TrEMBL record:
Identification of the protein by name: FAD-binding PCMH-type domain-containing protein
Superkingdom of this protein's organism: Eukaryota
Protein's organism: Rhodonia placenta
Swiss-Prot/TrEMBL catalytic activity: (R)-lactate + 2 Fe(III)-[cytochrome c] = 2 Fe(II)-[cytochrome c] + pyruvate + 2 H(+)
GO terms under cellular component: mitochondrion
Entry GO MF terms: D-lactate dehydrogenase (cytochrome) activity; FAD binding
Family in the record: Belongs to the FAD-binding oxidoreductase/transferase type 4 family.
């Protein structure tokens, strides 16, 4: 994003857990701050130093430690790239229960540390459920081995949960045990063009009802976001006639075990939607080949990149009630307009996309440059809006450095106090990813 910059001079790239442990022990004794770094694809500055911390990159730790194709349990080093884990599992008829646009660079340790949500959480649930165990190097160098491969283990505090989403502030995740899912035997997708946002929720209800167990994604893209993806060459644009009059789009994916059965369900859904009076959709573009399937996903997965290509993106990753998605986008745009900031040399676009099934909206404000004027117009405005709807200021991207000051909008004082105590318990010298999640 080119938004956060540190002044570090040193990156260490350990090859195994023991090396991580020795480095961390050394740093703790000398009070040297550490920033653990995975694929560096985070969006809140969590893996970027704020001063001159030592960067520990996990990129050299890429061993797959074990895989059991009966239980589906995979144990891997933290530095394994998400896509390479998927490639490894494919011949074993399994998939990683997590998928996101950054899969080609993000690492499983980073995914776990940020509790990444992604495109199929609707189907496979959160990492708090699918991660079975972790190996973590604690801030004093101790190796906490919780790398269990048990599905059930009800023996006291579930310590691993503390490190899922801790963004490297409590220790460095070096190994992950995760429950892989059976690979779907048939997948399909369809891009639905909607005349109005008001149809998104009725559509979601209908799609869930008709597709039921084969529904694996339901992604919302507003018209402006779609136009930017097309402008920046993400996926193949739909035909003019398919997009005409569309206020927004929904990408629906099915994953099941029998192609004919799934196709029949999807076709029936489309027919029903088109025939309904009034229809919830203008059109639906059904993937007719693996290339088209990939291209429809490329539009959705390429949104982040297209925002960055268009300008400097202020990204708000929020949970709000589904029926408020459009209101949040429109209210933010109106607010910027009233401040005189909706101009080509200030804010160019206010767009929304996100994971409807998870109640997670990505509000993106694309500007010509990052400026204090725009930032003070957006914050705390957006956070107050979220708090008004009792939402979360970070649905899946984490707090990083971007939102430490905004934590009280989503967490009460008692919760923050407990978080501080936990941080102090694990990291009394404050060396582990300082200034992230909790303010310095
Ligand atoms: C996504 O859903 O595309 C990611 O969370 C990244 C983003 O918000 O741009
Ligand atoms: Zn997302």
């Amino acid at each position: 994003m080119n938004k956060y910059h540190g002044r570090s001079t040193t990156v260490l790239r350990p090859r195994n857990t023991k090396e991580v442990s020795e480095i961390v022990k050394h740093c703790n004794e000398r009070r040297i701050g550490i920033v653990p770094q995975g694929g560096n694809t985070g969006l809140v500055g969590g893996s970027v130093p704020i001063k001159d911390e030592l960067v520990i990159s996990l990129g050299n730790m890429t061993n797959i430690r074990s895989f059991d194709d009966a239980s589906g349990i995979l144990v891997a080093d933290a530095g394994c790239i998400l896509q390479s884990l998927s490639d490894y599992l494919a011949p074993h008829d399994h998939i990683v229960p997590l998928d996101l646009g950054a899969k080609g660079s993000c690492q499983i340790g980073g995914n776990v540390s940020t509790n990444a949500g992604g495109l199929r959480l609707l189907r496979y649930g959160s990492l708090h459920g699918s991660v079975l165990g972790l190996e973590v190097v604690l801030p004093d160098g101790t190796i906490l081995d919780q790398l269990t491969t048990l599905r059930k283990d009800n023996t006291g505090y579930d310590l691993k949960q503390l490190f899922i989403g801790a963004e490297g502030t409590l220790g460095i995740v070096t190994g992950v045990s995760i429950l892989a899912a059976s690979a779907p035997q048939a997948s399909n997708n369809v891009m639905l063009a909607l005349p109005t946002f008001d149809n998104v929720l009725p559509l979601y209800r209908e799609v869930k009802r008709q597709l039921s167990e084969i529904l694996s994604a339901f992604e919302f893209i507003d018209r402006r976001a779609y136009d930017l993806a097309v402008k920046h060459g993400q996926g193949r644009a739909l035909n003019e006639s398919d997009v005409e009059g569309a206020e927004c789009f929904v990408l629906v994916e099915t994953s099941g075990s029998k192609r004919e059965h799934d196709e029949e369900k999807l076709n029936t859904l489309l027919e029903n939607l088109m025939e309904a009076e009034p229809s919830l959709i203008n059109t639906g573009v059904l993937a007719s080949s693996p290339a088209q399937f990939a291209s429809l996903w490329a539009i959705r997965e390429g949104l982040t990149e297209s925002m960055s290509k268009e300008g400097k993106a202020y990204k708000y990753d929020i949970s709000v009630p589904l029926h408020k998605f459009k209101e949040v986008i429109d209210t933010t745009r109106d607010h910027l307009q009233s401040k005189g900031l909706m101009r080509d040399d200030a804010v160019k676009h206010v767009v929304g996309y996100g994971h409807v099934g998870d109640g997670n909206l990505h509000l993106n404000v694309v500007a010509d440059a990052y400026t204090p004027e725009i930032e003070s117009a957006l914050e705390p405005f957006v956070y107050e809006l979220v708090a008004k709807y009792k939402g979360s200021i970070s649905a899946e991207h984490g707090i990083g450095v971007m939102k430490t000051h905004a934590l009280p909008y989503s967490k009460n004082a008692v919760s923050i106090e407990v978080m501080k105590r936990i941080k102090h318990l694990f990291d009394p010298n404050g060396i582990m990813n300082p200034g992230k999640v909790l303010e310095l």
